[in-house]
Design brief:
The structure holds two protein chains of two kinds. By secondary structure, chain A is mostly beta strands. Chain A contains one helix and 22 strands. In chain A, the strands form four sheets. Chain A has a seven-stranded antiparallel sheet with strand order 2-4-5-12-7-10-13, with no helix packed on it. Chain A has a six-stranded antiparallel sheet with strand order 1-20-17-22-15-14, with no helix packed on it. A five-stranded antiparallel sheet of chain A has the order 3-6-11-8-9, with no helix packed on it. In chain A, a hairpin with a 2-residue loop joins strand 18 and strand 19. Chain A is globular, with a radius of gyration of 17 Å. A three-stranded antiparallel sheet of chain B has the order 2-1-3, with no helix packed on it. In chain B, a hairpin with a 5-residue loop joins strand 1 and strand 2. Classes of the chains: A mainly beta, B mainly beta. At the A-B interface, strand 6 of A face strand 1 of B.
Chain lengths: 248, 63
Amino acid sequence: MSVRFILRAGERGYSYLPAAGLNASYVAGHPDGVITRHSSFNFHEYQSGIPGLGVMKVFGDETFTPNGTGYNMHPHHNFIIMAFVLGGALTHINTIGKIDELSADDYYVFSAGSGGKHSELNIGGADLQVIYVWVLPGQLLAPPSYRHGHFDRAAGANRITCLVGDEPGALPIGQTSKVSRLLSDGGKTHTYRPSRANGFYAFVLEGEADIAEATLTRRDSIALEDEDKIEIAARAAGTDMLLVETKL
Amino acid sequence: MKKYLCLGCGFSYDEARGLPEHGIAPGTRWADIPEDWVCPDCGTPKSGFEMVEIPYHEEARPA
């Protein structure tokens, strides 16, 4: 087993994006609105220097304040953009013609392909907590697409559930990358079996887990490579994790 | 001929195709694009692009 990196919660890049001032056209909402973003990866811009893991270029842990804060309509190509809603409500609007409302445990996959714009808004009265993941596509300039999924907590308890990727019940993205969720009562060991050719990234949403002799707590993460069996020992009740297998 | 992708928004530049609508002729090498050039969609600087080896979707290949 090879550990590529361990990234503690406090070591991530941090962006504070108020809806006023220089960001006013980019960030939606009333002037007191703000998006806070903790970035695991950095586009070479932050001090920690982790550019991503294989085709995964963004893993953003974001909070939007209530009453209209978000990203105004802006363009993309090619990237496969996923949002996993942890709390609050997300309104997603895109140029495919979809207007979607997502609540806790809902997620989407927006493949920008040959070109698409989207807006991400928190029009509710509570903070929105959401994880954004971007991966490179398997093919350039594919027709844009949007799919909505939901993680069922009852069915997903004490097991690893594939949310995105080439698995039954998961949303397909046309490449070997996968995103899974692990929800555990704790005191249990869960096994993930990636393809040895792929990278593996585990991010602790809540709780505590041991992976590869490292103890990870809330919002810590670890990346591994050259492994086909990964043991995840969930230590705390309510341990909740996102697991990303990425093409390297 | 190589392809480059904007890490800010995903816009792709293909040396073979150039960007005629933005004044860059087909066949223009990445190295020959000015260093102060920015992504035409999102303004990310040239240094924020990454070389990619990803094939085109069948609908985006030359006829």
